[in-house]
Amino acid sequence: MDHTENLTRYTANFTDELARQGVENAVISPGSRSTPLALMLTEHEAVKEWVILDERSAAFFALGLAKETNSPVALLCTSGTAAANYYPAIVEAHYSRVPLIVLTADRPHELREVGAPQAIEQRDLYGEHVKWFHDMALPEATVSMLHYVRSKAARSVYMAKEGNPGPVHLNFPFREPLMPDFSLKDIWNHPSAARQSAITAEEGGRFLDPSQVEQIMNRLQNKERGIIVCGPQTDESLATSIADLAAAWNIPILADPLSQLRAGKHSKSHVIEAYDAFLRNKEMRASFKPDFILRFGAMPVSKPYLFFVKENGQTDHFIIEHHSGYREPAGINAHFIYADPAQLCDVLVEKELSSDGGWMKQWLRANEVSKKRLTAGEEAELTEGEAVLGMLEAMPDGSRLYTGNSMSVRDVDTFFLTTDKNIRVHANRGANGIDGMVSSGMGAAAAGETVTLLLGDLSFFHDMNGLLAAKHYTLNITILLINNNGGGIFSFLPHLDKEKHFEALFGTPPDIDFQYTASMYGGTYRNPANLEELMEAFTKSYQHEGLSIIEVNSDRTMNAEWHRKKWRAIEEELLAGSDD
């Protein structure tokens, strides 16, 4: 068997096994050394290929697509620094638990460490940021090697999904010539039994036994002022189970904007969404001292909640994780429960727990006052908060919101009020970076649902390359671009000197006219001056096929004061009421 046939059958069997294991999408960046796999992924009828030129953009595109589909996405590039450009997205995928199957082409072993062009050390390139790494063997097409390549494909999918999902990395050394031969017969199914011999695996659920449940309930006896907290998590089915538990125990749910609890058809009678606003005041935080905290998902976005947790460090704190993990940045004493969250809620809902009747009323009042103040009034000029409120009102039922970091996710935390609309919310909160946000939103849009991407001007500038995917694939995405000409979040940090070096090091104004990016990438552009124009812009954007950019201009200093004015009004009304 010659080199070309070895190469063809080896890569074809690997690709077919990926598809057999459920991989439906592959994101490919062009290159020479990756030719065999690129062509195989493109030729396979069960795999949809997405060609993204910039490797950094491609990796974040795959991240967004994997988030939305909740399924592993293959990611392929050539050798050299192309693979290094994947690193930021792989770090994010690791910390946010997103399954990616990273495939890097490499020089064969004889061309490593000898100064060959486009050859870098790719073994263990991503270190501990991948769940599993394997340096693949050179292509052969014997029965044993086809079994080998299929088993590695199957294992890569299993490892990406197993336990806490995450990225895995397979490195493929290829010798030239690199072109496979598609005229060979039956390349996807070798005449041997290799196709049937790849590994399969089934994984059961994780449940507590009755004695463990009783231990938890024993610790909660005579504790009447409990809180359920749901931080960032992606399981939409968890909402009903948590809502039922909160109703049964009559305790509040502090629902992070990424918890999937603020939107949907489930009951929201016990959902508290404005806690970030009223927990900013230390005196207010002291009045909400809990007996226990039951947390699902990652740590919430809210910094006031972090202060609240630290100030109640001796409170019984239970953290429920579906699998292993240690997500507790507050440095408090915590009891970890590794079990299926929904099933645990369904068990606990049958257990009786006494509650303080005034406890729930206290939270509800603070929540209602906060929502009233946050939505009150309309400014002469469109503010950032009003823009986010308008966006959330305009978003269609069944659509997706992808929010950037810094001020964007914090404004969503503040202004995303409960709704019966089904809106799934995504964000890159693993490493909390501003890079790759446009591409991540494009990847989510590639799954087929309408996506609204909220981000600031620096995040937008940082990843404008990602807009090419919208033009290339006519992806339906509306971008709400909040342009305050720099890093708006730094205006909220009191320790920074606003005069000396502030603009150069923190404000960093890009001074860019973003209107031209819309025309460059074939999108529509609108720049509304008031709320009415904003709502009209959203309506037109959702009727438009392809990319729409809505830019809202804002002043950083005025925006910070507008937020503080809202928070002061909330504090004053609630503290005045506490004296009654």
From TrEMBL:
Domain (Thiamine pyrophosphate enzyme N-terminal TPP-binding): residue spans on this chain: 14-122
Pathway entry: Quinol/quinone metabolism; menaquinone biosynthesis; Quinol/quinone metabolism; 1,4-dihydroxy-2-naphthoate biosynthesis; 1,4-dihydroxy-2-naphthoate from chorismate: step 2/7
Keyword Heme: no
Free-text comment on the cofactor: Binds 1 thiamine pyrophosphate per subunit.
Span of domain Thiamine pyrophosphate enzyme TPP-binding: 437-552
Matching SUPFAM superfamilies: DHS-like NAD/FAD-binding domain (SSF52467), Thiamin diphosphate-binding fold (THDP-binding) (SSF52518)
Catalytic activity: isochorismate + 2-oxoglutarate + H(+) = 5-enolpyruvoyl-6-hydroxy-2-succinyl-cyclohex-3-ene-1-carboxylate + CO2
Any one GO molecular function term: 2-succinyl-5-enolpyruvyl-6-hydroxy-3-cyclohexene-1-carboxylic-acid synthase activity
Keywords, ordered alphabetically: Magnesium, Manganese, Menaquinone biosynthesis, Metal-binding, Thiamine pyrophosphate, Transferase
Domain Menaquinone biosynthesis protein MenD middle residues, every copy: 222-402
Broad EC category: transferase
EC number: 2.2.1.9
Cofactor: thiamine diphosphate; Mg(2+); Mn(2+)
NCBIfam families: menD
Biological function: Catalyzes the thiamine diphosphate-dependent decarboxylation of 2-oxoglutarate and the subsequent addition of the resulting succinic semialdehyde-thiamine pyrophosphate anion to isochorismate to yield 2-succinyl-5-enolpyruvyl-6-hydroxy-3-cyclohexene-1-carboxylate (SEPHCHC).
Record-stated family: Belongs to the TPP enzyme family. MenD subfamily.
Assembly information from the UniProt record: Homodimer.
Protein name: 2-succinyl-5-enolpyruvyl-6-hydroxy-3-cyclohexene-1-carboxylate synthase
Upper lineage: Bacteria, Bacillati, Bacillota, Bacilli, Bacillales
